[in-house]
UniProtKB/TrEMBL annotation:
InterPro entries: SBP
Keywords linked to the UniProt accession: Signal
Keyword Signal carried by entry: yes
Any Gene Ontology CC annotation: outer membrane-bounded periplasmic space
GO MF term list: thiamine binding; thiamine pyrophosphate binding
One BP term from GO: thiamine transport
Protein name, UniProt field: Extracellular solute-binding protein
Listed Pfam families: SBP_bac_8 (PF13416)
Amino acid sequence: SKIPNAENINEKAKATVERGYGPAYTLNSIGIVVDPSAGIEINSWEDLWKPELKNKIAIPDITTTNGPAIVDIAATKAGVDIKSDKGEAAFKELEALKPNVVKTYSKSSDLANMFSSGEIVAAVASDFAYDTIAKAKPG
């Protein structure tokens, strides 16, 4: 590497270098935020498709940082490598998820508002949104 401290990069960030790209400069995590007062248990990505979550969740818009991740999550639920069918199975799974989705959001502040108003009980979100949501809906 031409970067003097490249060997000190986080192991997960090195994956892009190994694939021939530059080192990752940021890492985000994505998860499911759940309102504990809703009494709904979510233990996996597949739980987002449960019928009891009809009109109760929010997912990121495809054009946002985590938009592609929700497509990959849907492909995993379908049991298909997203590359093998160009996302076809993933988009079928997202279509099946539609009844549960109140909103595909583009700003994490939207999530804070939806949680505080009780409009949603769960959302797929980045780690950077957690504090904003917690302040809007403590507990």
